[in-house]
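Input record (Table S2, row 252):
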Amino acid sequence: MVDIHSHIVYGVDDGAQTIEDSLAMLRMAAECGTTDIVATPHSDNKYTYYPELIAERIAELQAAMGDRIRIHRGCDFHLHFDNIRNCEEDRSRFTINGQRYLMVEFSEINIPKNITLVFHDMLRRDITPVVTHPERNALLMARVNQMVEWVRSGCLMQVTAQSLIGGFGKKAEEAAKKLMRHKLVHFIASDAHDTEFRPPDLRPAWDLVASDYGEKTAELLFNTNPRMTLTGEYIECEDPDDVPVKKSWFRW
Ligand SMILES: [Fe+2]
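Output record (fe (ii) ion complex):
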């Protein structure tokens, strides 16, 4: 499996704090069948993203892990003005392996009004936004048809493995399954922060997807699609299903 979302680099965000934390997470990922893991430290108002420092720490961790797992660089990219401007100047600072896929995280309290234009601009510059864990964002889940439009224009979606197995509560689990039904999931990743509460173990979610949606779907979401982000190959995806809009007698 290829895990495209994790906080395994120590001392740069709210994930691993020490090199021992990082190595414990990497050992766990490898033991659970992950061959490649993308380190995606936050770049937001709280944590500054330094690509050179992160690359240095990845090299240190890779040397310690040898050939047990391959580590790649990415970013948990928050949608704020400076980030967007910096990414448009040089996408390789933030994208997975310096290729075209960019992990994009929305705030839980606000969806920028011009976000569709921002996405179109990114796509025009050959950057593919990958919206992270929409199932855990109530504002996004209230706009599923908006996500359908984003996917039709070229964006992709990543769901958190733990959401599918109930680790983030019933609401997130149901939301993840709704996104699966509407063909709005292209990747499943751990978003691991530690070895205990948010571990880099994709196996329980793989088992659930394989039994409920079939092995082929599991292979696509945990392996084939994520692996293509490492090389920057274009990912072809199915047309998602619209969500019927409920008609209301009341006008607000
Ligand atoms: Fe994350």
